[in-house]
Amino acid sequence: MKFWINFLKGFRLTAKTARMVLLLFIINLTFALVLAVPMYYSLKDSFGNSLVGERMAKGFDTLWWHEYRDQSEGIEKTFTPFIIGKGAILNNLEMLVQMKFFELPPIILVFGLVYILFHTFLAGGILSTFNKDPPRFALRSFSEGAGRYFFRFILVVLVSWLFFFGLLGSLNQWFNSIVNKVAENAFSEITPFYLSLLFNIFIFVFLLLFRMIFDYSRITIVADGERNILRAIANAFEFVIKNPGSTLSLFYTVFAVNVVVTLIYILIKSLIPQTNAWGVLFAFIFQQMFIFAVVWIRCWLYASQLELYKFIPKEI
Fold this sequence. Notes:
Elements: H1 2-16, H2 18-47, H3 52-58, H4 62-71, H5 86-97, H6 106-130, H7 139-185, H8 190-224, H9 229-242, H10 244-271, H11 277-311
Helix pairs in contact: 1-10, 1-11, 2-11, 6-7, 6-8, 7-8, 8-9, 8-11, 9-10, 10-11
């Protein structure tokens, strides 16, 4: 039950540093507004004085969207029916697993790269805050920790990308070739559909394991002061291999919490009528509460993993 002890301890540590979670939420909201504001004015100009806005409030206007899509450039290309409700979450998962994010407009890819770099910077501040004894959030020390570990964390990200694009690309190519062969001889599309779904689930689980190992790579750098990136990754891999029960149980328990919170969000938001300004405002507030919860859970995972890493003795 090592994982359960650190699972609860991680939650308490996150609660003690709630101001840090709030700061991360505000930063995330600011990033979102950078894209949301131009999209708002683009849609406003497209709607004009027509009845499209009213029709969109009642349901997605497909005819208008086809015309808007054909005339749009850059960020506007990302506005599709799939960004509404649960479609956005499922679409993002498919894009990640199938490596379709390169099909996004260049401006989105550049923005995504900047977001990853900034998230990497913040990760150093998060882990350095949790690594204090006792953990206590202060903006100055948070910034110092973020800057201290940024370069090493960036190198970890680059190595992870080599694994990600190399191994995942090979897996996708292999799986797709199998699905295509099955589809050629299948009497219906049901068999290749379920086979493709099974492969996607496998890849997604693999990605979660992959992410967990590189989380511990960052933790090794902060907790042990490791400066050699390859040794940090090797130590993280060794730690996971030697403690599969605790590391996997902790990671997937926090992941299950994330899934439950997401399902609750999707269910409740689908019940909120957004046919007037008050409904839209309430839906927006509820959405931001969900984003805050997601940020909280991410910090909770970091805190729990760090505590587990320090809790289990390492061989000298």
